[in-house]
# Entry
Amino acid sequence: MDVFIILLCLFVALVILIPLLEKYQSKMGLDGATKYAKYIWPLVMISLIIQLIYVLLR
# Structure
C-alpha cells in the first residue's frame, strides 16, 4: 500500500511541476539554475538520512 501512495505522490508532483518548470524556464536562465543547484545535494543527503532513520525505527 505504501508503494502506491509514493507512486501517486510522485505522479502528482510531476503533473504539477512539469508545467511550472516549462512556464518559468525561460525566466530563470543559467544564473538562476546555478543559484538553486547548490541546495540539491544537501537536500538529497537530508532526505537519505531521514529515510535511514525511518527504516531503522520501523
